[in-house]
Each structure stands twice: as C-alpha cells, then as structure tokens.
Amino acid sequence: MSGTVLTGAAAAALHRDDPERRPLTQKSLNDDILRMIAKPGPVWIAVFAFDLLVLLVGGLCLRNQIVLGLGVAGYTRPVMWAAYITNFVFWVGIAHCGTLVSAILFLFRSHFRRAVYRVAEAMTVFGVLTAGLFPLLHTGRPWLGYWLVPYPTQRGLWPNFRSPLEWDVFAVTTYLTVSSIFFVVGLIPDVAAARDRATGKVLKTLYTALSFGWSGGNNQWKHYYGAYLYFAAIATPLVLSVHSVVSWDFAVSQTAGWHNTIFAPYFVAGAIFSGVALVINLLIVIRKAFRLEHIVTTDHIEKLSKLVLLTSTIVGYSYLTEFFMAWYGPSNAERDTFLFRYFGHFWWASWIMFTCNVILPLLLWFKGVRRNLPVLFVLMLFVNVGMWFERFVIIITSLARPFEPYAWGVNYRMSWTEAGITAGAFAWFFMFFLVFVKVLPAFSITEIKETLPVPRRRKG
Amino acid sequence: MSEFTFKRRDFLKLVGIGVAGTTTGCASRPAEKLIPYLVAPNDLLPGVPYWYASTCRECSAGCGILVKTREGRAIKVEGNPAHPVNRGGLCGLGHAALQGLYHPDRLKSPMLKVNGQWKAIGWDEAIRTAADRLATAKSGKRGVAVVTGNATGSFEKLAREWAAAAGGTHLVYEAFGHEAVREANRRTFGQAVVPTFDFARAQMVVSFGADFLETFGSPVAQARGFAAMRAQPQAGWFVTVEPRLSPTGARADEWVAVRPGGELALALGMAHVIAKEGLGRGAAGVDLSAWMPEAVEERTDVPAKTIERLARAFASRRPSLAIAGGVAAQSAQAVALAAAVNLLNHMAGNLGETVRLDQALNFDAVAPFRDVQGLIEKMKQGEVDVLVVHGADPAYSIPAWAGFGAALDQVLFKISLSSVMDDTAERCDLVLPETHALESLGDAEPMRGVWSLVQPTMQRVPMFDARPAGDTLIALAKAAGFGAFPDTWDAYLRNEWKARHARFGAGRTFEAFWEDALKQGGVWEEAPAGKPGAAWSGTHAFASPELQGVGEVAVVLFPSHLHDGRGANKPWLQELPDRTTTAVWGSWVEIHPDTAAKIGVAQGDPVRVETAAGSVVAPAYLYQGIRRDTVAIPLGQGHAAYGRYAQGRGVNALALLPPAQDEASGALAYLSARARLSKAAGESALPLAQPNMHQADRGIAQGIAVASLIAMEYTGGKAGRVLEPARGEGERAGSAHPAPLPPGATPEEAAHTPAGLGKEGPRGVNEPVLLETPPSQRRPGLYTEPRQLKPGEVIPPHAITAYEPEEKVRSPRQIPVHEGSYSNPNHHHRWAMAIDINSCNGCQACVVACYAENNIPVVGPEMTKRGRQMAWLRIERYEELLGGGPNDVRFVPMMCQQCTDAPCEIVCPVYATYHNPEGLNAQVYNRCVGTRYCSNNCPYKVRQFNWFDYAAPEKETFAFPEPLNWQLNPDVTVRSKGVMEKCTFCVQRILDGKGNARDENRPLRDGEIQTACAQSCPTEAIVFGDLLDPESKVSKLSHDQRRYWVFNELNTKPGITYLKKLERESELA
To answer: Looking at domain B798-1028, which CATH architecture does it have?
Structure first.
C-alpha cells in the first residue's frame, strides 16, 4: 500500500474496481448469496436448455445400446471395459473432492474451506449420481442390475461377496448415502434463511422441508455443530476407502497393468487431484457469473490449487513407480504392458495423461500462476482431461496387452454411442449442478459469517 | 473290419440306422411330409439322438461319417471311427455339410429362366420342359453333354449311361483332379492313379508343394498318418519345398524356399546326387547329368550343399517319402515335377513302402483338363444343344481364358442340378434342385476297395422341393423317351449293389446285406498286406517350367479351406480363420514385408496384382513365409452368385491366369504367371482373427528339443519317470510321482542335471535346464509352487487338476453355494483335457465341430476385425522360426482351460460363473448380468460376449436365418444378448455319457465321453477324459514328460495339459 490516504469515495471506487474487495457484511452476505436463488436469467436458461439437449442425445444413445446390445460400443475382445468404466472411475474421483474439502478440512480446521465447501459437496453428490450410472449401463443386461444387490429371494441366490464389483456396490451406495446426508445437514441453516425469504409456493415448501424446522435457537446451533462434526468423522474414512475399493476393481484382478499394490493410494490421490481441479473450475465460473469475487477470493482458490499441486506430485510419483516396478519386477507381461502403454498404439493417450497430470501442474509452483485465474482455469481443465485419460490409459492399455498375445493388435476405438453417453453423463452432472445453484444456497452463509466481524449493536 | 467291436454306443447307432433303413432310406417312395408329433412315432424318442452312417460328399476324399439326428433333424456330422478312409476324424468342410443342408439360399423349387428372369415352376413343368429339349437334342443329333463332379460310384455310372442313352457325352469335372499325378504315375509306373501314402512308416518326408494336410488327396487320412509319423521323436523329419510356406509346410522342420517353379529342378538335383553317390536304385532312361547341384542352385536359389544334404538324408533315412501334386505348384511342367518326385521315391525304394499305388484314391474318371477344353470347343461350335451340370461349378472354377463362360452362351439349353444358385446354375436356363447328400441315398467309391454308402439321415427339409439327382435324370430320360433305366434311383442303386452283395454278402440275403452295409456305412476290403512295388517304366525328359508375362513377382494360387470354392457359401467356413493369415470372409494377397515396403504397402492395404491376363485387387497380408519374388492369393472366393454368404466376397484369383497348361497331361497350370504389383486405392481392410503371431516369451506354444526328451528317457505318456523342476519336492513322502532324484542329490542338483542337453523351447517352464539362468534373470513368478499340504489336510478328489498331482494341490476351492460341496462323495470326476501341439496341424476341424455342437453364431468380417468372433475354441498360430531354413510354426488349440483356481470365478459379482464339483468352470447364462469382468481377468482370453442379439429372429443380427436354425443343437442353449459364454467341455455330452452309464448301472468308461473337438480331431491331438481315473488316457498324457501348462506362473491350475512340440533341430546337418 502506498502512503496515500484514500478518501471514502476513492476507496469505494477502488472496491468497485477490485471485486474481491467489495464490502462484505452480515446483511450483504445473505443478500449476495440468496440473490443467486432468483428467477433464472436468459443465460442460465440457454445453458440449461443446451445441457438438456446433450442429455437427450446421451439418452438416445443409451436406448440404442440397450435395444441393440453392447456391440454398438467400441469394445473389442481383449478390451472388455472401456469408456464407461473410464467414466465411472472419473466421476467417482470427481466425487472425492467434496468430502475431502468439507469433512477432512473441517476436522483439520482449515478455514479456507468455508467459502468453497458447499460447491464441492454438491459436486460430490452429483458426481456419485453420475458415476453410479455407469456400472449399470455398461453391463450387457442392465435391466438385471439389481441382482448385484443382496436381497433375499426364493432362489436362495446371493451375490458373490468376493467380487470387487460387489464391493463397489457397497462402496458407492455408502458413499452416496453419507455424502448426501452430510450435504443436507450442512444446508439446514442456510436453507432456513432461504425459506424466510422465499415467496414462491413450491420453493417455500421445499425449503421448509429441507430446513427441518430450523429456527436458529441456541440449542439447535449446538446440536447442529455436534451433528456436523459427527458426520464429518463418518465421512472422512470414506474419502479414502471408496476410491480404494474402486481401485481394487483393477488391482484385485491379475491382469497385467492392473495388478499393483500401489493402486489404492494412487487412485485416492488421483481422485482428489481431479476433484479439486473441477472445484476450482466451477468456482471460477460461479464467482464470475454471480459476482461473488468478494466471497470466493483468489486466496481461496490459491489454497485449493496448492492441494492440486500436492496431489499432482503424488500421482506423478505413482506413474513413475509403476513403470519402475514393471521394469524391476519379474513379470514379462507387466513389462510388455507398460512398454505398450507408453510406446504402443495408445501412446498419445498416455502422454496426454502424463503431460496434463504431471508436467503442466508443475506450473503451480509459481505463485503468479496460482493467482492468475484465467491461466489456472485452463490448467485445471487440462488436469481433468489428463485424469480422464489416466483412467482410459489404465483400463484400456492394460486390457489391450493381455497375457495372451493372440489378440494383440485388436485395438479399441471409441464409438459414437460411447461418446454420446459420455457427453450425456456430463450433461447429467451439470443438469444437477445448474439446478443446484439456482435452488440451493451455493455457499455456506453460516460458515462464512463466522469469518466476518461480529456486528455490534450501537449504543444509542 | 475284423476288429469291429460292438459297443453300446454302436448298438444305439445301429438301432437308429435300422430304423432309418426301414422307414426312410430304403423305402421305395419316401414320404413327403415330416410326421407331426401330435401322434409321435413309436420308434422315435424325443430327446434321444439317432445316428446314421453315411459318407461325406463335400470333396473327393469320401470320408465316412456318422450323422446325429434329433427329432428327425440332422444336427451334427462326425467322422465314422470304423471307416477305412478317415477312422473317425473329419475336416471342417465335412462338418459344414450341415450348412449346405440347411442353407437359407437353397432353391425351394425348380427354376426356369424366362427372358433373363428366374421363375419358380413346378416339377412336372420342369421335367416336361427339359425333356422336350432333350428329345429335340437327341433327335437332332446335335448333342447332349453331361458334366458331373467326381461323384464316383453308382451315380457316375448312371450319368455315363444316361449321357450315352441321350446320345451325348459325359465328362467328370473336378477342379483339383490331380491329373498331373495320375499322368506321371502312368508314365513312370504304368498306373494312372493317385496313390495313398503311408506316412506313419516314413522316416522323412519331402513335400514339393503338395498340400497334403489341406486339399490334396485324402487330407483327413493323410493328417492322421502324418501325426503318427511326427509322434516319433527320432523319425518323421519333414522338409517342405515351396516358394510360399503353406499350412502344410508350416508343420515342416525345414522350409526350402525354392524359386517358384524350381521344385522340379530341386527334385532332379536330389536325384542327381543320389545317383552320383550310388545311394539308391538306378532308373533306366533318365538322364540326370544336367542336374548337378551347382546347376540346380542357379535355377532354384537353393544352395548346392542343401541339395546334397537333403538327397543324402532322403536316400539314407528309409523309408522316406517325397510328394508332389499340390495345386499351388501345378505349373506347365506339373507332370514333369510329379515324375521327378516319383523318380526320387523310386530311387529311395519307397514304392510299396510309403507310396501305395495299389490303394489308389479314386480320381479315375476325372477328365483331364484337355477334355474339358474339348467340351468347351464343342460348345463354342454349337455342337451342344443341352448341357446338364451336376455337382460341379465349372463357370466359377475354370479360368476365364479357357472360355467356358463364353461357350455357355452358345449352348441352347442348360440344365443345372445344383441345389443352390452357384455361378454355373445362375447362367443356366433351368435348375432342377437336387437333394442334399444328407437327405439322399447314394454311394461312393472314394478309394480302391472301399464302397461307401450315402444314406438319408432325415426327411428332406420340407421347405425345399428338391429331388435326388438320380431320380431327376431317370425322370428326364423317361419323359424324353430314351434309355432303359429302373423306375427310381433307389432301384438303380440297389441294382448296382448286387455286385457288392455277390462279393461281400456271403450267406446273407440282399436285404440283410444291404441293411448291414447301411449300418456300417458301406463295405470295404481289408487293406492288402502285401507291398507290391512298382517298376520304373519310362523315360522322361525334364524341363523347368517358365512363368509367363513380365513383372517382379510370381503368382502362387493356392486352395484355401474353401477348397475349390465350394465351401464359400458356408458361413462357418467363411468365418473360419485361414491357417496362415487368420483372415476371414474374403481374399488377400500374401506378400513379403520387404516387397510390400518397396511398393509402399502396409498390412491390409489394397494391392493390385496385374498379370497379362487380368488383375485383382485385394488387401495385403505381410508374410515372412513367402519369398520376396512371390505373392500368393487364395482360391475359392469371388463368386458371382452362390448365395448371400459367397456372392461378391473377395476376388476370384483365377482371373490372373494366362492361358497355360501342362504339356503332358493338359492339366491347368495354376503356377504360370508373373505379375506386377502396385498399391491400389482404397481403405485398408483385412479382418484378421489373430493379428499377432509372436508369443512374446509367453510360453503358450512350447517346444522341447528331441535331445532333451531322449535324455529324459521319454516314455511317451506312460507316466513313467517324471522330471519335475520343483524345489523341495524331494522331501515329499507318499507321492504318487516321486521326484526322480539321483541318490544323494539335492533338489538343486537335480534341477541342474539335464543342463546343456540341447536347445530349449522359448520358455520351458518345467524344464529344469532353465534354472541354469543366472539368478538375476530368474523370474520367480514363473516357478512359484503351490504350497505343501498341512498334515492331515485332505484334498477332495474333484479338486485334482491337471496342474499337479493331488498331494500338491492347494486347499480346495470353496464352493460358495451351500448346497454344492466338494465333500460330496458322489462326485467322482475331474474332467480334463490333454492337447498335443506336436500333433496339431491347425486344420481347425475342431473349431467347426465346436460351432456345430454348441450353436455358436457367425458374426462376419467387421466383428472379427474387432475381436468379436464367438468361437469357443480357436487355433492360435505362433511363428517361432520362419523365413527359410529351419522352420518352426506352432498351432495351439486354445479354449477355456477349466482352471481349478479360475480367475474368472472370483470376480463375477453374481456367480454366473462358478466351479462345479467335477472341476468344470460352469457358466450360467441366465444368471449373467454381463459385466465382462470375467473376461478381463481371464489370462487366456477365451470368454466370448454376446455383443448383439444373435439369437433373436426379429433382429438384423440374427445369426441363424431359417432354416439354418434347424441345425441348432437342442441340448445347448442359444445365448441371448448381453451374456458371456465360453467352452463348456461339451457339458451336454458329459451329461449324456453319465446318464447312459447310470441307466446301464455301470461306471463310465474312458473315451466314452468325447467333446466335439476331441471327436473331430483327425490326429487325435485333443484327448478328453477324467483325471481321477488313473488309467484314463488323459491322466497318462497329463503326466507325459512333454507336458506343460499355459501361464503356469499365474497359478490358475488349468484342466488342460498341453504337450510340447518336438523340435527336431539340426538332425540333418
């Protein structure tokens, strides 16, 4: 700061110029955040309509696939899992960040989470909802998917509890349940605030239901924070366990390229990596769109990007370890698979992965990059492209180079149906998200208020 | 058949045959309709198969077959174990006969061409129309010509008599008629026959381009003998001399990559050495002085040293065997080549030893190509009014230069007796569809002394209004008023068999004899014990063939498994991967990678091959097994008609042939052209089932040097001394197979004992010698041993695997369903298989048999390209050594290994795949959700997924268009969309066998249950049985010293034991 003392008007003008320093008070916070819940404007409607269109295309592709058979996807014989499982792991990974930010950082008392955790949590719930589609729709007979659920039947048949896919069923449903509850519990005071302002009948009913009779009494606050801590404690291990279980879909099988002990931590780190990157992307857009720069500041985003940097190094270390172990280990199949991964038919996918996930994030060592939001936005897009390709590479290149050399060279090629359904899944996710920002308070009024100076009653 | 033993199974078959004999086969007038089951016939039990003995009519070999029928429909063809030609084996072409029977494009009625359009007409009208034409032709004295295939037997006689009565000519046309061999034998030994070969006795075989494991001669019989020969570690050296390594040549120990057309010079060069060094008999009237090895080297690119080495070995390793006569080597000097090879056999004294002129194959009536040209000439001159074609497709299989197509236009009226619109029928004026061989009565005389019967195995498929060709001919003769024939073909045939009755029916009435013959599938003489040699009688002048035209490459045309094109309309055969390239559903050009690089062509790119006569464009297949100055194109594709599966698929390579034929015999010269190559425009498209043929040190096809085997005191599967690599195994007490440690030796020492004995296979997992590698190079994963049992730990019997003896097996796998149990004392089997890759020729008969038995859908080229073939069993080809000189190509039948610790089982979330108490890895289609995790976790990649609805008739992807679906095996589920499937070890056959044994209150006998693949294998490379029966063949083979398990290091404990291929390296050096 220079020594110049600014007059009041000049200071106000500066604040207008620097949106991050707009004044923030208890009152204006409520206004700023609840303002989002208003009649949607033309931009929102256009985006939402486009989103539904993409979703419709995805739905038609899915119908086509169910009627004709999985053959419309690009599967080849050794590559029996491809884009759908890639999407599944990608979205489960995305879903990881929310709980990390809201639960783990809550327990660690990292206060920067307060401004961002609601968006992250919403992303978690919608991410799981998206991820959950894929195990179903990638099966040959999706209408029988309920057979994976253990329910008593007259046939006395139970699912196979030794199968990692069965573990997935439990991991994903548990995660969906816990993250939804956590999300809903966190919403209570804010929804109550929204309820108090709501005028529409439908919304009012919805808020009334979701606020569970919140009146803001001291006792309610006490129990609320108790419950929040409790759910944070429950959710925390899930952050680690769910993606570990997902990684065991691969690691438990003996396919070369999958059968690695490093998979669980590697996958968890990757999940946080991609999830935080997507949170950054979403926050940058939202704060711009709704003029909330003073609530979600560059500081917040910089802290998140440090998390990206950390996980990027873990992921990069895993890539190198895998490669080293393939070379060092006894299995020629493993060795061939990794050579194929980086230098075979899908070399481009592997190098996209490596570049986006390891090399580009190195820029985050520079503070200037971390605080330059346009650059950061692009960088985070690259991270998510890279993480999608990471799953693609792990799944497809390993399957394409199996033990049995007979089928080497029969290479997978993504079909239009798969591309349509993949796009549809993004549309599905953003459909929820778009509705979310228009219906629920996207930022935690409650927690942000804790950071504001306490308003004092002027003695009259 | 003196050793024809009467088994229970045979009894059932005979009962069935008797039923058929009295109800359908021998009935004077077959009933016209199938009997509805409203009132079930007393003698037909639903669910019980009936077997009928018959004869395969798919090629000239005439193998004996047994046809399985269920509820009055033929559903499976198997080789007849009692038949002298094939002894139980059958090739893919034979299995696919069923698809000819139920072909959806079979003609539903006679067809008449009116103004260029086909019109369905009734039989009466058809006979009348044809008879009018015939009567006119006969009275007008312009002539009738009859062309038949190599039908042999009574039909051939009928056709001959019929043609004579009609005042015309009769000609037997067979594209691969071996006329050069016959002519050469006539010139050199005075007998114009196609001999049989006694491979089993041969110490060494040299093939000069003869594809004796494919289409040449009697392939099933030859494959059988060849396997017997190759089973002997110290004999059976096989050298192939050809410019392009054929599937037969792929089995060779040495490939002499001779210049195209140089086979003759090479044979004479060998003869020269033998004569000069006095190693064999002399041959009068042959001047070999010009064929010094050095001179031959210039003509053949084969070093003189090699020629000398081959000659010395050939003369010394007696009896040896040299064979010539393959289509691919049939040049303008075809007779000379065959004669030169005869000379070699004569000099080495092989006549009567390995070459049996006395047991000749029946090609006697097949007209030389020169006679076919005579007919074409007559047709062109307008001297043929009516042409009748039966059992042949000359419009397709005669090259364009001979002008058959053009000559057809000059014939006033052309009648085809084909049951489908083949290329010839399409150009005829009237088609009188004949019944398929599986629904007709007939006979065949495939080789000297064998009279084989063809009997109807079912009512005629009712949707096709067809009549037996014999009946049609007789009806035509009667209507046109010529000849004196019995009323029906049946009567004619029986009349013919009076002669057989006189000879074989001693003491029986004709009816009794006839029924016996039908039951047995025919009558045959015992093979004569004597070995009549043949005297060299002839002089011969030899000159090397010259190829016509200009161009950088010679064109080799070879018959594929579609034979001369007759197999092209069978979807099973189209889907069957070629043995060399694994290409399906089309044509290709085999081209050396260097040559391809010169014209800038990569794998699958379209190549234009242009000769003086014409040009074809087909995708390139880059093949190390072909000379740089040669390209090879398969025959059999490129039909102008012939139904939905054949029409317009691939190219007809015959278009490349310039006018050329053998001088001596007139045989068509298939090897006669040089061509220019260029890259053609178009997409790269070559559907390969197996794009990669290098096993990347994975040890799938393993070999063992003969020297190592001898050092191991090889006992040939008699479970004698077993050398094990296991560390710590010596301490094991009470083992059934004690480790063979020398006294006082530690296991480590034992492991090193046979070191340095010879070259090892790429990864002899169980070969101790590999442990010699330095510790840093060892891969512990490959040698991990199952843990030892705890004291008192009991292994239930069905947990036994082929992997290790009982004592070494891990704890039994837990059966998750509480009802199932490994502790159930009633389970007494562990089904297993032993596959000898030393015997496997890669002929893929087993693959077709599997398609037939297990209702496997055909998916087409696009799906094959994407690895979506549904075959449960595939033959993998691995090229270890290729490129001239020592040669090692291995074929591995690969199907579900029925692992004891199956990776697929644990990952299935719904138990759709589980372990059954008899060691089978069962797949429950109903329960399958289709996660495909099992396939991802299967190291063998033998699980297939139903990508589309192949079983739903209303879908476009329906794989069994009516009436192909009649062939479906009612004992096997037709799988629906979205489920996994895989080899079941033919579980329906296991149940059938167990049920039969239980009915008769006796234990199962070894060999009673056979899977479709094992049954079909001409070389008995696949053996199926019960591992818990220590006396079973499979148990013994599973303890053979040559045994190994694929991906042993993954500890899946497969139920399939493979036996290593013998590597006969440097035996001739």
So the answer is: 2-Layer Sandwich (3.30)
Of the candidate CATH numbers 2.30.40.10, 3.30.1140.32, 2.40.40.20, 1.10.4160.10, the domain formed by B553-679 belongs to 2.40.40.20
A141–B937 C-beta distance less than 8 A: no
Chain B residues lying within 8 Å of A148, measured CB to CB:
909-910, 929
Cβ of B909 and A409 within 8 Å?
A: no
CB B47 within 8 A of CB B940: no
pLDDT digits 0-9 by tens, A234-265: 988 988 899 999 999 999 999 999 998 999 99
Q: Are B903 and A162 an interchain contact pair (Cβ–Cβ within 8 Å)?
A: no
- In chain A, whose CA is at the least distance from the CA of B779? A330
Cβ neighbours for B1001, distance < 8 A, ≥ 6 positions apart: none
Interface test mutation site (partner B, options A245, A404, A411, max chain B beta carbons within 10 A)? A404
Alpha helices, DSSP H only, in A344-415?
347-354, 367-371, 373-392, 398-400
Of B692, B866, B910, the CB nearest to A147: B910
| Cβ contact B909–A139 (<8 Å) | no
Q: Which CATH architecture has domain B179-361?
A: 3-Layer(aba) Sandwich (3.40)
Out of A70, A76, A160, whose CB is closest to B867?
A76
Tell me which chain A residues have a C-beta less than 8 angstroms from the C-beta of B603.
none
Backbone φ and ψ of B883, nearest 5°: 120, 20
A314 to chain B, closest Cα gap in Å: 28
Instruction: Give the number of other CB atoms < 10 A from CB of residue B733.
Output: 7
Our CA-based measurement puts residue A155 at a distance from the nearest CA of chain B, in whole angstroms, of: 11
ipTM value of the model?
A: 0.92
Asked whether the predicted pLDDT for residue A289 surpasses 60, the reply is: yes
Q: Is the pLDDT of residue B92 over 70?
A: yes
- Over residues A187-211, mean pLDDT: 91
C-alpha to C-alpha distance for B138 and A437, rounded to whole angstroms:
95
Number of domains in chain A: 1
pLDDT of residue B6: 66
* pLDDT at B753 (0 to 100): 34
**What is the C-alpha separation between B704 and B695, in angstroms, rounded?**
16
**CATH tag, B8-107+440-524:** 3.30.200.210
Instruction: Name which of A160, A333, A406 is nearest B894 (Cβ-Cβ).
Output: A406
Q: What is the pTM of this model?
A: 0.88
pLDDT band per the 50, 70, 90 thresholds, residue B755: very low
- Report yes or no on A224 lying in a domain: no
Read off the pLDDT of residues A316-326 as tens digits, 9 standing for 90 and up. 999 999 999 99
Give B589-627 as a DSSP string: EEE-HHHHHHTT--TT-EEEEE-SS-EEEEEEEE-TTB-
Chain B positions touching A162 (Cβ under 8 A) are 816, 906
Query: What distance in Å separates residue A409's CA from the closest CA in chain B?
Result: 6
> Within a domain: residue A179?
no
Whole-number pLDDT of residue B777 = 35
Per-residue pLDDT at B194 exceeds 60? yes
The total of other beta-carbon atoms located within 10 Å of residue A1's CB is 5
Q: What distance in Å separates the CA atoms of residue B343 and residue A37, rounded to the nearest whole number?
A: 100
Residue located via tokens 């056709």: B159
Residue A263's domain spans which residues? 25-149+231-451
* pLDDT for the residue A14: 57
| pLDDT of A418 above 60 | yes
Inter-chain CB proximity B1050 and A399 less than 8 Å: no
Residue with tokens 């419009």: B395
Q: What pLDDT band is residue B772 in, cutting at 50, 70 and 90?
A: very low
| Residue in B691, B692, B937 closest to A253 by CB | B937
Phi, psi for B474 (deg, rounded to 5): -65, -45
- Tell me the shortest Cα–Cα distance from B965 to chain A, in angstroms: 21
In chain B, residues under CATH classification 3.40.228.10 are 179-361
In-domain check, residue A180? no
Across the interface, do B696 and A336 touch by the CB < 8 Å criterion?
yes
